[in-house]
Every structure is written in structure tokens, then in C-alpha cells.
Amino acid sequence: MAGNGYANPEVLVETDWVAETYKSGDYKLIEIDVDLDAYAQSHIPGAIGFNWQTELEDTLRRDVPSKEQWNTLLSNAGISNNDTLVLYGDNNNWFATFGYWLFVIFGHDKSKLKLINGGRKKWLAEGREVTAEVPSYPAASYTASEPNWELRAFRDEILKKLGDPNLTLLDVRSPDEFTGKVIAPPGMTETAQRGGHIPGAQSTPWLNAVKEDGTFKSAEDLRAFYEPKGVAEGKDVIAYCRIGERSSHTWFVLYNLLGYEKAKNYDGSWTEWGSIIGAPIEREVATVAGTGGDLKVCP
Length: 299
Fold this sequence. Notes:
- The protein has 299 residues and is an alpha/beta fold.
- It contains eleven helices and eleven strands.
- It folds into two domains: 2-147, Oxidized Rhodanese, domain 1 (3-Layer(aba) Sandwich); 152-298, Oxidized Rhodanese, domain 1 (3-Layer(aba) Sandwich), CATH 3.40.250.
- It has a five-stranded parallel sheet with strand order 1-5-4-2-3. It has a four-stranded parallel sheet with strand order 7-6-8-9. Strands 10-11 form a two-stranded antiparallel sheet.
- The model is unreliable at 285-299 (pLDDT under 50).
- It holds the Pfam family Rhodanese.
- This is Sulfurtransferase.
- GO terms for molecular function: thiosulfate-cyanide sulfurtransferase activity.
């Protein structure tokens, strides 16, 4: 792949490399999925499984894990601060990039964090070795750093910056979610009270960052997509979706592949913003059939 022009090409590893090295013991594999159903059926041999719904968020607080919860999770899984970690997951790596984002927030050495390009989808499509056997590693002692919240956006921060020309908001949901036609994809339980998008946000569906096989597009193609949407050096760039997993995928692209170090993930996303009393919302409304509609701010 020769780096594909990425700012940090070393963050990605290819399925060929993993197939040749996963038995070496030089790193730990972690599969992060929305739940553990797919992992229970099959996964890369030796991979630890993390459940995004119950382990990578505090379900009571509807928040990311605390530092203490993070330490406990990783220590029990046999992960230490010195481990090189190779992450992958289902849904085109949505939840794996969320996990990557948390590892960076809690201070894991970035040179020891990798993502399998194409994730679980590509590994299975290539017919590579899988197992249903769950590995067991001796408990370790993981000590996270104080969280770096500079990588995380919060609702009050966005509210204060609305209309700021130095802020670029990227709504990475589907076009129907962006316009307010639907509040959430079919069958999803986490919803909001209203449909639409944050005022000033640009519609940049996450899918535009990947090729058919789930691997990332080249840096040239990624810049051609994001730069016309207002992504530029020195600007504050915040990605959001519905629950923060698709936007973590876009954050990964911006932060690692394109090198925008000021990129943030707003994991509260639409389930939070769309339920806040008094929060401004834009919604596309068709005024004349066939014209494409205009934007109106909803109270």
C-alpha cells in the first residue's frame, strides 16, 4: 500500500501482515464489536473480545469508562501498558476506532496502537483462519493516564462555538438522518426526540472514507472529500453521528490518516443533541418538489 500518502501510515496494518504474524506473540489482538455475538461465532485466533455496549461505555452514566473502569477492564484482559495492541472489529471497524480513540484518551503509547485495515469484514472475506476458542491471558496491571479530553467534544463546547468560522462540524450519519427524514437507522434503539442536524454541520457520511472492501481510501481521495467541507489545518474539526461510533471512524481518518491533530469526536452525538431542550437544530425541508429543499432552524 506504500502508505497511500497518509500522515501516519504506521497506524494501519494489513490483513496479510496479521496472517503472517499473529502467532508471534509480539502483540495482542483485540476485536471490538457492538456486542460479542459475532466474536463468539468466530474471531482471529488469540484475539481478546470487547463488548462496546457493556465494556467500552458506562451504561449507567451513558458515558465513556472512568479511568478506574478502564484500568480494570484492561488488567483483567491481561493487557499491560507496554503491550502493542492491534485492534479490529465489525461494522467496518466502527467500534474498533472507538476503542482506539479511548486508548489514546487514556494515554496508551500511540506507537503501540494499530488498526487492521478493513477489519473483520476483510479478514472473513479473504477466508482467513478463525476460531471460536476464547483465549485466556494472565491478569496484568494496567495504569491509564489522566484522560486527555482534548480529543473529545462536549455539547456545551459546541453550543458556545456555533457560528464560529474556525469550527467545522462534520455530521457523518446517512443523508436521511442529516435531513431529519429519520431519527435513527431502522431497528436502532438509541434515538433522540427530534430529527435534523446541528446548525452549520456539513453532511459527510462516514462511508465516503472507505472502499468496497472496508479499507481506507487514499489520502488524496480523503482530502478531496473533506477539504471542500471545511476541513483545514488550524481549524477545530468535530465529528458526530448518533452514538459516537461512526464519528470515531471519521475522527480516526482525520486524526491519524490526514494528520489533523485538533480533530475531536463528539460521542454524545445526536442522541444527546437531538434531545436537549432548546438546542438549535437545522432540518432540510422540501419547499418545492424537485428543488432539493432549503434549511430551516427548528426551535
